[in-house]
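In the design runs reported in the main text, the only information available to the sequence generator was the tokenized backbone. The following block is the verbatim input for one such run; it is reproduced so that readers can re-run the procedure and compare outputs position by position.
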């Protein structure tokens, strides 16, 4: 099996994305990077000639899980705003 420059770039990008997902302090940025990681991982499965895994990764790993993370992040941001409002009301 011949490793092309594209395959090497894909592997390095996956490692870079994985590191930044784990090291990110901003949750929204981490979720967006996670979705990007899943899409590139699906491309990696295509390159390995595993289309069934690529479809599952794209649908579940990026699509469904990414949507659930974004929904949870929105609810988390809402509770944080409500807590700040309650804290301000208590100070008055």
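Verbatim output:
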């Amino acid at each position: 099996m011949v490793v092309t420059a594209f395959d090497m770039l894909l592997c390095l990008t996956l490692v870079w994305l994985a590191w930044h997902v784990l090291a990110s302090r901003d949750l929204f940025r981490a979720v967006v990077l996670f979705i990007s990681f899943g899409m590139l991982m699906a491309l990696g499965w295509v390159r390995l000639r595993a289309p069934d895994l690529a479809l599952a990764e794209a649908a579940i790993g990026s699509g469904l899980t990414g949507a659930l993370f974004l929904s949870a992040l929105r609810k988390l941001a809402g509770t944080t705003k409500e807590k700040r409002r309650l804290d301000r009301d208590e100070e008055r």
